[in-house]
């Protein structure tokens, strides 16, 4: 019942998380295939998800909204590219406008889920690939504090500062 | 999707790493070209061990990477884009760790005959 490995590749912009569960594959598949279960883990407690459309067949769509503490809403969608219950799911994950239609101004990411048997349970591997650093910034940087972003910007300035204060050379 | 910001500890590490003039100089040099630790040490009035320590601090902060080449330790700068990608992936990792914790809760409740 825990994360067994995390591989992050900043050059390829991919992340793969592996977790083990002591339950059968069908049971783990339900975390994805049952919209009521999905909405209990997809969004953080402060942004619970409500799934309003859910079709995990190839070409099918999932549509959901997440509601924040101030009543603010974020909508998202998946487009199912491959599905092989209870083993494999490949989907595109993106943001939607307020009507639930894909927002063409926002990038998307591709996510792959694989569930394989091991003694006493299953291993679930989840991989995400981001299309570019800019896309990643847009997708993940949304919650980044402004002050922090400024701080990060200062680093380059700091490095560009004159090395004169370093006397012996 | 809303991702938690980079941790304060991480920012502290970064600024502490860059608060030292020698370390800033090392970063500038290795961003231009890879250097061995002994090559770097030649230009500073300090021991190779001291330079190694500086490099370790920079590595910890994600500003440089080290690789072994024969008997040498080669140090290379990590461009800002790579650092940023790493940070975003770290934030994304946290998001998934939280999701996996919640998955575990859902599975546990189901075992007890609860919801779902």
Give a verbal description of the structure:
The complex is a heterodimer of chains A (169) and B (116). Chain A has 169 residues and is of the alpha+beta class. In chain A, 23% of the residues lie in helices and 41% in strands. Chain A has 4 helices and 8 strands, in the order ββααββββββαα. Chain A has an 8-stranded antiparallel β-sheet. In chain A, strand 1 and strand 2 (14-21) form a beta hairpin. In chain A, helix 1 (25-33) crosses helix 2. The radius of gyration of chain A is 20 Å and the shape is globular. Mean pLDDT of chain A is 85; it is low at 143-148. Chain B is α+β, with helices and mostly antiparallel strands. Chain B has one domain (8-111): Arc Repressor Mutant, subunit A, CATH 1.10.10.10. Chain B is built from 5 helices and 3 strands; from the N terminus they run ααβααββα. Chain B has a 3-stranded antiparallel β-sheet with strand order 1-3-2. In chain B, helix 1 (8-18) packs antiparallel against helix 4 and helix 2 (21-32) crosses helix 4. The radius of gyration of chain B is 20 Å and the shape is elongated. The model of chain B is unreliable at 1-5 (pLDDT under 50).
Write the topology of this structure.
The complex is a heterodimer of chains A (169) and B (116).
Chain A: E1 2-9, E2 14-21, H1 25-33, H2 35-41, E3 49-54, E4 61-67, E5 73-84, E6 88-96, E7 109-118, E8 121-129, H3 133-140, H4 146-160
Antiparallel strand pairs in A: 1-2, 2-8, 3-4, 4-5, 5-6, 6-7, 7-8
Helix pairs in contact in A: 1-2
Chain B: H1 8-18, H2 21-32, E1 35-36, H3 37-42, H4 48-60, E2 64-69, E3 72-77, H5 80-111
Antiparallel strand pairs in B: 1-3, 2-3
Helix pairs in contact in B: 1-4, 2-4
The percent range for helix content of chain A is: 10-25%
**Class inferred from helices and paired strands of chain B:** alpha+beta
Count of structural domains of chain B: 1
Strand content of chain B: 5-15%
Order of helices and strands of chain B: HHEHHEEH
Question: Which H/E pattern describes the elements of chain A?
Answer: EEHHEEEEEEHH
Find the CATH superfamily of chain A. START domain
Distance between the termini of chain B: 24 Å
Shape by Cα distribution of chain B: elongated
Quaternary state of this entry equals: heterodimer
Second-tier CATH architecture of chain A: 2-Layer Sandwich
Largest sheet of chain A: 8 strands, antiparallel
Instruction: Give the tally of β-strands of chain B.
Output: 3
What's the total helix number of chain B? 5
Radius of gyration of chain B: 20 Å
Which CATH class of chain B applies here?
Mainly Alpha
For the largest interface, the chains and their residue counts are: A-B, 54 and 51 residues
Stretches of chain B where pLDDT is under 50 for at least 5 consecutive residues are: 1-5
Tally of helical segments of chain A: 4
């Amino acid at each position: 019942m825990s994360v067994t490995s995390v591989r992050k590749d900043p050059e390829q912009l991919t992340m793969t998380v592996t977790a083990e569960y002591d339950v059968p594959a069908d049971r783990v598949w339900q975390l994805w295939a049952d919209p009521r279960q999905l909405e209990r883990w997809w969004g953080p407690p402060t942004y619970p998800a409500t799934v309003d459309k859910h079709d995990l067949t190839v070409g099918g769509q999932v549509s959901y909204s997440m509601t924040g503490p101030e009543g603010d809403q974020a909508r998202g969608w998946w487009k199912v590219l491959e599905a092989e219950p209870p083993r494999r799911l490949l989907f595109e994950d993106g943001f939607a406008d307020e009507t639930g239609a894909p927002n063409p101004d926002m990038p998307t990411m591709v996510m792959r889920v694989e569930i394989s048997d091991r003694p006493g349970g299953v291993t679930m591997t989840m991989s995400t690939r981001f299309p570019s650093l800019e896309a990643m910034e847009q997708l993940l940087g949304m919650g980044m504090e402004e002050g922090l972003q400024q701080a990060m910007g200062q680093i380059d300035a700091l490095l560009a500062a004159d090395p004169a204060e370093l006397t012996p050379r | 999707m809303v991702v938690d910001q980079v941790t304060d500890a991480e920012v502290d590490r970064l600024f502490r790493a860059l608060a030292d003039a020698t370390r800033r100089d090392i970063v500038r040099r290795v961003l231009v070209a890879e250097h061995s630790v002994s090559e770097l040490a030649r230009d500073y009035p300090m021991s190779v061990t001291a330079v190694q320590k500086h490099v370790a601090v920079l590595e910890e902060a994600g500003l440089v990477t080290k690789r072994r080449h024969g008997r040498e330790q080669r140090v290379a700068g990590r461009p800002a884009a790579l650092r940023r990608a790493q940070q975003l992936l770290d934030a994304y990792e946290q998001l998934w760790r939280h999701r996996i914790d919640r998955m575990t809760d859902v599975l546990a409740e189901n075992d007890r005959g609860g919801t779902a």
